[in-house]
Amino acid sequence: MANESVDIQAPIVDGLSKAEQWLTNNSDLLVQYGVNIISAILILFIGNIVVKAVANSVSKLLHKKKMDKAVVEFIHGIVRYTLFVIVLIAALSRIGVQTASVVAVIGAAGLAIGLALQGSLSNFAAGVLIVGFRPFKSGDYVEIGGVAGSVDSIQIFQTILTTPDNKMVVVPNASVIGSPITNYSRHATRRIDHVIGVSYGADLKKTQEVIRRTLEADERILKEPGTTIGVVALADSSVNFVVRPWVRTEQYWDVYFDSLQAIKEALDAEGIEIPFPQMDVHLNKVES
Taking every annotated instance into account, which residue ranges of this chain make up the domain Mechanosensitive ion channel MscS C-terminal (predicted)? Predict the structure, then answer.
């Protein structure tokens, strides 16, 4: 039994001796690697803080210059991601990874990813075009890609809209550039389009005067350009007037609803009928 115990312990002792000798011989190398790893971690940690600080400083500077919020967020994203890549390369080079090799790998990976994600790259390119040509800005009410809403932000790959019922809609930038863009907020004034139908028996001149008088009583309706009121169609059951006043863009919907109600009440007060669709049925008696 004693001999067996000696045989078992001998390899263990020999292994520990070799490990201790290896640690002794390579202690300087281990210390160097340890320092490099800790340095790389510190570079990542501190670099990330610096990147955020620089990106936020750029955003504040652009805000002070009264640059559009959507453009500021787009530039903020580009600055932050670009600087973080530089910090990552610096950290890898600290632990012995050749920077040139990293750049080559990133370039090759970028090419492969670019071929696989052509849609994302087109969204990025479209984002650059949006920022460059500025078809809309933050806060504008627009219709893009079949969606209408207020522009919240322009990001690297998508544009964020908020709909009137407070839903967030994410529209890819390529869809924004690739479809018609309707900007309802670009100009200072907008035209309201009403179609008012009255009965065929109504006095058309009186109807026109009642509508004009009603609109002139609203101070929010602009004097220039003038309001257009005229017969636009002889429909099946009504004579249709087109009513087109001009208002300031921010007052559009308030005036739209108020003017429509005011016209209805004024026509009722003057005894001018607004008919509903109806059909005359003629019965012919056939003698048997």
Answer: 195-274
User: Please, which pLDDT band fits residue 15 given cuts at 50, 70 and 90?
Assistant: low
Q: Residues 134, 68: contact at Cβ < 8 Å?
A: yes
Rounded CA-CA distance 142/23 in Å is 68
pLDDT-based confidence at residue 165 (cuts at 50, 70, 90): very high
Assigned token pair, 27:
């202690």
The pairing of strands 239-244 and 228-234 is antiparallel
Q: What angle do CA 225, 231, 236 make, to 5 degrees?
A: 145
Q: Is 32 strand, coil or helix?
A: helix
Are 136 and 154 in contact, with CB atoms under 8 Å apart? no
3-class SS of residue 265: helix
Look at strands 181-183 and 246-248 and give their pairing: unpaired
> What confidence tens digit (pLDDT) does each residue in 168-192 have?
999 998 888 888 999 999 999 999 9
Task: Tokens for 75, please give them.
Answer: 């530039």
Confirm if 78 and 155 have CB atoms less than 8 A apart: no
Residues 6 or more apart whose Cβ sits within 8 Å of residue 74: 127, 131, 153, 154, 155, 156
**Predicted TM-score of the model (pTM):** 0.59
| Least reliable range by pLDDT among 105-119, 134-148, 163-177 | 105-119
Q: Token digits for 102?
A: 């990293």
Q: Are 219 and 186 in contact (CB under 8 A)?
A: no
Tell me the C-alpha distance between 64 and 231, whole Å.
52
What gap in Å lies between CA 35 and CA 182, rounded to an integer?
58
**95-121 average pLDDT score:** 61
Length of the chain: 288
Instruction: Give the CA count within 13 Å in the CB-facing half-sphere of 236.
Output: 5
Q: Is 59 a residue whose pLDDT tops 60? A: yes
